[in-house]
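note to self: dont lose this again. the chain is below, predicted strucutre after it. 232 aa total, dont forget to put it in the shared folder this time
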Amino acid sequence: MFLLRRRRRSGLSTPLMIFGAFGLVMACLTLFVAVPATFMRARTVRALPQFQAAELATLGAGEAGLFTARIPADATTDEDGFALAELQRKIHDENPEVANLREGEEGPSRDWVVAEPLPAEIILELDDGSQVTVLLPNNTSLQNAEVLEYDDAEKLYAYEKKGYRAGQTLTIEGTWETNDTITASYLFNGSASGYVEHTRNSIGGAFLAAISCGMLAVLMAGAGVFLRLTGR
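---
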């Protein structure tokens, strides 16, 4: 009876130690993989030339750098007021396909998927009043974008729209092509110097996430060990 009671009381120790160990692994991966990668990314962005509108005519095709342009104030917008946006969706927790799952059933994927991609291109205005065409591949990353989250009326799906509004100035990290065209890899709402600062600050964010995750993991693992030793 004593052994049975002790085993029941220590039932929480194993999950705590497992989650703690998993958290420590994630913290180490973040600290030794994500942080250095973020640092190298910030160095790359800082080294990129920041081109002015007057310099573009002298560029050769394929030159990489940071370009600054503005979404026209009279640009067409969607129902939410975005002039440039991407819409993602995932299955809602109250969707019957999820809510009615039996224990052990996996059900449909709950990952975000693209419901409405970015347009293939957009026309932006340079500081000198001229226009430039920005090509937007499917993997273009939207940095510092406004995010709008909502559910549909039936709560079948959750939606996340991310984008920019008319009149906003964007920094484009990309490559110059022929015929006044830029192929974008990253977009940022703000100046080129602001974008460099944004990527630099991400180093501290990654480091803080690693330390926070590690401390929480140690606390969980420690609590699990304590419960195991005391039989609680």
